[in-house]
Design a protein that fits this description.
Helix content: under 10%
Strand content: 35-45%
Radius of gyration: 31 Å
Distance between the termini: 24 Å
Structural class: mainly beta
Oligomer: single chain
Length: about 850
Amino acid sequence: MSFGANKANAQQIVVNGVVTDAASKGGLPYVSFLIGGTTKGGQTDADGKYTVAISNGQTTLKFSYVGYKTQIKNIKPGVSQVINVQLQSEFTQMNEVVIRAGKKPKYRNKENPAVELIRKVIENKSKNRIEQYDYVSYQKYERMLFSMSNLSDKFKSKRVFKNYQFLFQQQDSTKIGGRNLLPVFQEEKLSDNYYIKNPEKTKTVVLANKRVNFDERFIDNQGLSTYFDRMYQDIDIYDNNISVVSNQLLSPIADGAPTFYRFYISDTIKTQQPNLIELSFMPRNTTDLLFQGKLYVTMDGNYAIQKAFLTVNKNINLNFVRALEADLDFEQNADKRYHLSKSNLLVDFGLSKKSGAGFTGERLVSFKDYKINTPLPDTIDKAPLLVVVPDASKQSEQFWTMNRPVALSAANAKIYSNLDTLQTIPSFKRTMDIVTLFFAGYKDFGPFEMGPVNTFYSFNGVEGFRARIGGRTTTALSKRYFFETYAAYGFEDQKWKYFVKGTYSLNNKSIYAFPQNYVSASFQRDTKIPGQELQFVQEDNFLLSFKRGENNMMLYNDFYRVDYVREFENHFSYSLGLRKWNQSPAGSLYFSNSENSFTDRINNINTSEVTLALRYAPHEKFYQGKVYRTPIVDKYPTFNLRYTAGIKGLLGGGYNYHNFMGSIDKRLYLSQLGYTDLTLDGAYIIGKVPFPLLSIHRANQTYAYQLNSYNLMNFLEFVSDHYASINIDHNFNGFFFNKVPLLKELKLREVLSFKALYGGLRDENNPIVNQSAMRFVKNQDGVSITNALNKEPYLEGSVGVGNIFKILRVDVVKRFTYLDNPLVTNWGIRARVKFDF
């Protein structure tokens, strides 16, 4: 990795190589080097490799490392070359010597000059941050490149890539990711950015944006860009925690850094002003989510970071990350403080940390025109906080050539045209068609796509074997009109189920694209488990057919719906809906208003509802899939509020009621202790209604662990007309397992959850108190299987182990209350498949 190297030109040559220990032959990480006669240089990467551009007339490189003899290497003029260096230990080796191992001094923070220095850096953080100024403005250039990496020549020459050879790139073998690359995504962005201290506000004006655009039938381009931005966020060394690949790593200058890191003064650099102290750091526990690397601290009283090199230990508890390097450079402001001028983050991913093909992402960020305490125009202080100038995505290549602070290489400049060409090749289209079918579950036929395939076959206790087929139209048919349908047949109940929906887009874009603005009308006749509302999965998904206990209480539903949905750029949205709903019992479920449930039964319940739903998700990021919009979880909360009014007499509705529901979802990051996902929700129903219209609490009778369900509650076990609940799911990210010898090698992660539900029924809706209320369902022994919560809350919790084989979480779940209810399981084992970094 090159540090301090100028851009190559006609008068420059490239020198690279590896610095090793002369005795062990192992690569030496972070060895400092200087170009003779200059103050420019850098350091080797974690494997001892380096690359530097040398101007003609510069004839030497000086390598220095604490504990080793300094070595100077001559450079041949006019030709790029490889110079490998072997550094000798400072200690003289004798022919015969008796070595008695003394006790290694224990590392201590007390009276450690390196720790005293880092504490000075921590004390001075506030005056070296952007927040110290009243106004700040700067221009920011970002470039993101994502490639398949470490590809062998054998892989490259496979028959399937016969027509794609123009896509491959070769890079310097000293860089992470290997020699052969296959670029798959590139994006550039140029923006003006503003910061106002009081009241605190930031604003971004995007001047230009250029990226690879894939066929929207296969890939959500905006979502892909958003996902990469989340994985490769800006690195602020002054933050206590730094987000990298969706995890938070403790900064080496965090307030608590001396507790988790070891610090060493490794060099003093007096060849530039101000003088710098080279401060090396490493994690006390190599498996914890921590960095290692070097900081260069100014000795001018600011105790600012002038340069930083961050990497991670090979033992870190991060999945699929084979290598990570981040370079940060800082420049002085007019007031002698320092601001970030350039950062470069590279991460190499792979199923194996040692070898094989993988993916490499690189994000380069450059800052210029940095101005401080210059009052900003009044328009900057006004909403919206993100502005994209007209035609930002249509800027000419001449514009980019003039405004890129870092020029694209010839190979990278071809990526846009190469990938455009790729999408015109028939074999690539066929490949994407197969990939989309496998991962998204849809087969594309141009104006119509069939799916999702995981619902084509399923089974349950009422329908038996269930066959289904369906699909929907695409933008190839129309950008205004969309239609969706399916038909299903149950071989046990011998009934047809079907669904048809028509949608009209009001903003001339796909109804799945953000921000949504459409009206829709639909009719659905199908089965449903009472109270079962799944997220990010279809209820007739084949894998959810496997359930524990009895599973034959269902509803036949007829839904007539009209909806209007409107989203705004600030991620506030609302929807208005009118629904006519007919419910009929199926299986062993029945409706009855008397104790004689076998003779006095009700065939159906008819309701007509008007609904207003409000949602606010500030700074929300997501990937839009074929079926669901998948949020990219971050620290920002999500608020939901919904009001439903049942209107008696409207379209045959039989009940008057008002249902108020609200929820808050929030992820809390706790630094080295991991993170907590917290959900608070509640509801209050006004009016007398039968139990199918009450809040039927979400139960789970599958063997999968469901985050938002009660995993030891039975279907239809509890109903309420008012309730409040809390759901806590905490992931320790291996904080404790990382301290256990041998166990830490497995990279397991501890998980803990707790769920509490408090609620009840007013007398008017409780059949035990009110004889006119609809009766709860009883089993064959005459015992009610549906209950109201009493003064005691429903409680369950779990402890588990995550990251098993990097994809599996297994929980032991314990139920603490209402243990005397029929068919109750006090504890169970549940599993969940999830890919985590």
